[in-house]
Amino acid sequence: MRMSGAPATPAAGRPTDAERVRSILAAAHSMTVVTDGTHTEVRHLDGTDPLGRLHLHPAEPGGEMEERPSIRLEFTDIAPTPVRDRVRARVTITGRLLTPYGGQDAEASTCVEFLRAVLETPDGRRTSIGLGELEAASPDPLAPYEAGMLTHFLDDHSELVTLLLRLVSPQPTAGLVRALPLAMDRHGITLRLEERRGHRDATLAFPSPLDDVEQSGAQMQALFSAARRRSHRNTLPA
């Protein structure tokens, strides 16, 4: 059941909710595991999709009547740059244990009877995703690299963030305090525009979606070139 009432297929140039969940899992550095009321923080997930160790199985009819320990996996997607309101999304996967939970043992494998995955976004949207959707989706090719790419962009090329503002529509007002890169995926880069009162996000689409991380340099250069061509009338107010 789709709890938000949003359509299953997003607008062109946006990841599906299932793809977004898979991307969050692929980039996760840690997760919270709740079993039998015990919270365990599992860290050092870098480069290891937790679904590789937690095998999800469809729920069987009548399985809810059996005494199986419940398990809840909690992931928080946090912006790698120091923007306001850094939490970009939360993911919760719930199910019942079919084999004992392997804890932090990288060699352990745990089977889970999948109940549901829920994606929560800061705007209050809450979407339930089925196992079929989750298994059919692929993580974004930039997901494992996004944090390093955005921090490098901000730390070493902050002047190019300002350049990209020429592509933002509507243009930022004189109330703009700062602009920071918030997110990047195969479809484009999102800037967070922080104003004296509140903030807004602006997504700049790449000329075409990326197939792998090696294409990101050329796509960013295309955005920079487009920004330089933009009329000076579109630059920030003095």
TrEMBL record:
Q: Which InterPro entries match?
A: DUF2470, Haem_oxidase_HugZ-like_sf
Residues annotated as domain DUF2470: 147-220
The UniProt entry, under SUPFAM superfamilies, shows:
FMN-binding split barrel (SSF50475)
What domain of life does the native source organism fall in? Bacteria
One Pfam family name is DUF2470
Q: What is this protein called?
A: DUF2470 domain-containing protein
What is the scientific name of the source organism?
Streptomyces toxytricini (Actinomyces toxytricini)
